[in-house]
């Protein structure tokens, strides 16, 4: 068996493969991404662990007739191409699992072998993006998000900063920063992890989810009652055989923490979802854009609820149509209206206590009278009238 990453990479180049996403499976196992355990044949009792991450190409080569073949999936974002690969190729990138290791269980999660970023990803701001960037440098990046926290902890319901239907677009925009790989989200029910100690949480990551590593910020806390900190995370991950990578927070260079109305002990001047909400409440869209690394996009579910003015220059809709958090009441110029994410129309937005009003060019009015129009996106510029 060849050793060292250099010989592995060279061998893959010989087969026209590039280091991106890689999945391996036989007819009697399931496909996974990243760190993949499997056996060479149904009669084999020994399992092998894939040491290589991220292959993103097709395989083509003349093969030895004596080779045993496996089916391999080469994944590029949402596309998957399955090819037949001889064991002579795989043998150079696989190593046997230790004899005392457990064989792989059925139904591994999609994050098996991946690198998960840990945090609360409400705003998907530049600090969150940095976590994804660091995860992508190590392996296949995932954002590990907890769902159902507000209900269990009794928090008051509040609109999300990023609409659920818009999160995939935002993550796709991070791909150029992440080696042209789009980070994916993996949701865990908060009720299932709420009472876990820091050790139990890391054990879940290692044994149940089988992640290869985690990335977190210096201020990250985890476990029941936030008992564990970043140093605990590093130590526990070491014990359970997974990597832990702690990064410095992305600091907010334009505002200091004294200007943020927050009771959080974590507020130390870093970019945060709290700061994004604060900037939106002030209508400071330039500041919002700096924190997000993009324009804030407001999503409007319009079907059967929008009213077009008689002069066909204004569309109005009740605030109940908004799918995420709008900025403060007022009028905003230099906005862009996205119709089905295809047609972009310059517009002016006015938000009052009950409605949102969109003033646009007359030529765009034909789009708003279509019975098929359901969803609008509004990208806010950096000025408020």
TrEMBL record:
**Compositional bias of kind Polar residues:** 257-274
EC no. given is 2.7.7.2
Q: In which pathway does it act?
A: Cofactor biosynthesis; FAD biosynthesis; FAD from FMN: step 1/1
Question: What keyword terms does UniProt attach to this protein?
Answer: ATP-binding, FAD, Flavoprotein, FMN, Nucleotide-binding, Nucleotidyltransferase, Transferase
List, for all copies, the residue spans of the domain called FAD synthetase. Answer: 113-255
What this protein is called in its record is FAD synthase
Lineage per the UniProt record:
Eukaryota, Viridiplantae, Streptophyta, Embryophyta, Tracheophyta
**Keyword presence, DNA-binding:** no
Q: Where is this region: Disordered?
A: 257-276
Which organism does this record belong to?
Answer: Olea europaea subsp. europaea
Q: Which GO terms describe its molecular function?
A: ATP binding; FMN adenylyltransferase activity
Q: Name one Pfam family in it.
A: FAD_syn
Any one of the GO CC terms: chloroplast
Gene3D superfamilies per the UniProt record, alphabetical: HUPs
- GO terms under biological process: FAD biosynthetic process; riboflavin biosynthetic process
The keyword Transferase is assigned to this record: yes
